[in-house]
Specification:
Layout: E1 8-15, H1 16-36, E2 39-46, H2 53-67, E3 71-75, E4 82-84, E5 91-93
Parallel strand pairs: 1-2, 1-3
Antiparallel strand pairs: 4-5
């Protein structure tokens, strides 16, 4: 339930195949969060697991610019960028992407 003092907009980005499995639980989560906190959760369902990290970043930049979102919750096995050191075999998640 959204109240007049709701200020934060948060996108919940979830893949279609996963959403079908957790739809009831996600709807309950959305209702409980919106009831307890001044936030508007906006669930976006699509083929997210197939998107590249760049496509996800572009989509979220668009949501920020157009819908003024304050945050995002990524659900599922969403693609993420990795960095790899040119020597030594070091690699990891690129957190500044």
């Amino acid at each position: 339930m959204l109240t007049a003092d709701a200020t934060d907009r948060v996108v919940v980005l979830i893949d279609t195949s996963l959403y079908e499995q957790v739809e009831v639980n996600l709807m309950r989560y959305e209702a409980e969060v919106e009831d307890r906190f001044p936030v508007d959760l906006q669930v976006r369902v699509g083929g997210v697991n197939a998107w590249s990290p760049e496509a996800i970043r572009t989509y979220l930049q668009h949501e920020y610019a157009v819908n003024q979102i304050n945050g995002v919750i990524l659900v599922g096995q969403v693609q993420y960028p990795l960095w790899e050191q040119g020597f030594g075999g070091n690699w990891g998640i690129l957190s500044f992407f």
